[in-house]
Amino acid sequence: MKHLLKVGVMLSVVSMIWSATALAQTPNAVPVELFSCSWQEGKNMDDLNKVLVNFNKWSDKHPSNYTAWVITPQFRTSDEDFGVGWIGAWPDGSSMGSGLSDFSSEGGKLQAEFDKVIDCSGSHMLTSTIATSPPSTDEPSGGLIMFSSCTLAEGKTGADAIKAQTEISAALAALGSNTASWVMFPALGAGDIDFDYYNLTAFDSYKDFGAAWDVYVTGGGMQKAASISAGVATCDSPRLYDSQLVRAGTSS
Fold first, then answer.
1. Which of 177, 182, 200 is nearest to 134 (CA)?
2. Of 42, 176, 195, 223, which one has the fewest beta carbons inside 10 Å?
3. Domain residue spans of the chain
4. Do 62 and 102 meet the contact criterion of CB atoms below 8 Å apart?
C-alpha cells in the first residue's frame, strides 16, 4: 500500500483512464487497484490477518466505501513469484479520492504495520473496471478469482471487448455457469505491458469453479466463447487465486 501515499499522481486519473483504454463513455466503470506483494522474512498470513484487524478499525473511522480482498496464488505460471496480492475497489472516483486523501494524511502508522509483514512497493496498478456479468448478490464475498491477460485484435477497442465478454458471460450462464466477470483496463502504474486488459472471473467456491469447468470444457462453453471472441481479442492461460474478503465497502 506504499503507493497509496502518492496522491498527487491521481489528479489526472479520469482523463488518463479513458485515453489509455480508448473506451467510449462507460458510466458503470469503477476504479480498482491491484498490488502484487512479497512476504517479509518470517512473515505469513497469520501476521497479515493481525494487521487486517487494525486496517478495518482504521477504515471504520475513515469510511470511503472501499472494498478489499487479499489473494493468494493457486494455479499460476512459474514467472509469477509474488506471495500475496491485494485488490481494492471504490464505487466511483470521488470515493477513491476521499479514501486516498485520508490514507495519505492519517494512514502512516497503519502503512508501517503493513510494511513489516508484506512488501508491495514493486507493483501497484489502477484499473478501470467494468462488470460484464455482475455478482448474483450485492454483498461482496471471498472465494476464488481467475485472471487472464487479453490482447485486442487490430482495429478493435475496449468497447468491443466489453461487448464480447458480456455476450460470452450470457452464453455461459445459459449453459448453467454461475460466475461473475469483469474486464479490467490498466490505467495507471501498468508499466510497459504487452496486453490490453484483464478478463476477471470470480467463483464463490471450488465447487462452483468445478461446475463452471464442466460447462466450459465439456459443456460447449469453450466453443461458444471462441466463436464470440473471434476477431476481437485473444487471451492467455488463466491464473487462479484464493480470495479473502478483507472489507466490504460502506458509505456510512
1. 182
2. 42
3. 27-247
4. yes
- Rounded to whole angstroms, how far apart are CA atoms 218 and 234? 21
Nearest Cα to Cα of residue 145 among 211, 221, 204? 204
Asked if the model's pLDDT at residue 191 lies above 60, the reply is: yes
What's the rounded Cα separation, in Å, for the pair 237 and 200?
Answer: 12
Q: How many helices (H) and strands (E) does the chain have?
A: 7, 10
Q: How many CB atoms lie within 10 A of CB 177?
A: 23
Residue type, 17: I
**Is pLDDT of 252 > 50?**
no
pTM: 0.86
What percent of the chain has pLDDT above 70? 87
pLDDT of residue 139: 74
3-state DSSP: the chain helix, strand, coil percent, rounded to 5? 40, 30, 30
Distance (Å, rounded) from C-alpha 173 to C-alpha 24? 26
**Answer CATH for 27-247 from 3.30.70.100, 2.60.120.260, 3.40.1280.10, 3.30.413.10:** 3.30.70.100
Give the position of cell 464475498: 141
| Predicted pLDDT of residue 122 | 87
DSSP summary character for residue 161: H
Q: How far is the C-alpha of 44 from the C-alpha of 127, rounded, in Å?
A: 27
The x, y and z cell numbers of residue 110, run together, are 497503519
Note the residue count of the chain. 252
- Please provide the DSSP assignment of 168-192 as one string: HHHHHHHTT---EEEEEEEEES--S
Please tell me the predicted confidence (pLDDT) of residue 243: 96
